[in-house]
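Case study 2.
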Amino acid sequence: MPDRTKEPDSPPVVSASRGANWALVLSCGLFLLLFAILYFVLPDESFSELENSALQTRPQLSFSSLNEPSFSEELDNFYTDQLPLRYSWLSLKAGVELALGRQENNGVFLGRDHYLIKRQEYADLSDLERNLEAAGSIIKTAETSDIPAVLAVAPRAEDILSDLLPEWYDSSYADVPWDLVRSSGLPQADLLRPLKRAPDPATLWFRTDHHWSAAGAYAAYLEIAAALGFDPAPETLFSPVSVTDSFTGTSYGSSGMYWLPGESLTLYRYGGDDRFLVTLDGKEQSGFYDWSALTKRNAYEIFFGGNYARISITDPDRERPTLLVIKDSFANSVLPFLAINFDLDVVDPRYFRGSLDSLLQDKAPCGILILVGLDSLSTMPLLTKLP
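Prediction:
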């Protein structure tokens, strides 16, 4: 008589489990194979316009390079920088970081009102000390020739927009480099406290970029005028003109938060601002603006088309005194304001290879303005490059 208590045969659980495992292994293998093929098929990108940074291209393989300690590092950087669908992965990483409640990715905070604010911390302030010493030498040289000179240090976004930072972030460290700037004893145009105390500091800075906006540049112009002793043009002279509503700056590129909307890039135009003769490393143009920059990734380059070793700005209809401006990119949006009062001889120490003495003899300036960002002073030998 059949045993009716015997249970039916169990399904082949082990076989199904093995099949699923093999499917998973095969899928992962095909995925890795696809990416390996893409690494060889896709062309290398040497520069990321979105992130505004150089990328590691494929290192040259040879018997000698295999013995170089730097080869493995270059190879690691290559696989990171040339990752297929790189920007999609960066955006995914940023989304995960925000989902975990960190409010920061790749050194960029997501502040209130979608402001992207770079975390700029300095473990070593030796560059700042040396740059302040070099600024002192420039000012002392100017004083021996009876030329007034001032230092104007552009703040960082985190200095001006501290109220928009995440509540948990301790920004007290941010005062440390400013203490050095103040204690230097150099004649200065204070750009920190007046801008920070403005009725609406957020309007003075771009939401997606580390630079100040046109409103911020004008506020800096007013403080520079007070320090150098000239009468600034009133704000009523200018007509704000938005040239694009989709501007995304350097903070946006670093953040990976590529789903955030762009913003307006506004210029303060005034009558006749297109008639100035502007010479950019020997190439002449009329006016301050390079309109082709609006079709490029870095639309901030609408000011002169970017940075140059030397820029000359003159009024072709009259002779005026010349102001020597030693600057980084923060000054680009301030120069159209200064051009109302002076002809300008502008040098960027990152690219200029002449001497201060040659500049003083060439144009015989009526004054010297050193207008540079605190971040540049703290992270590179900027002013020390100007002998």
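The mean pLDDT is 87.
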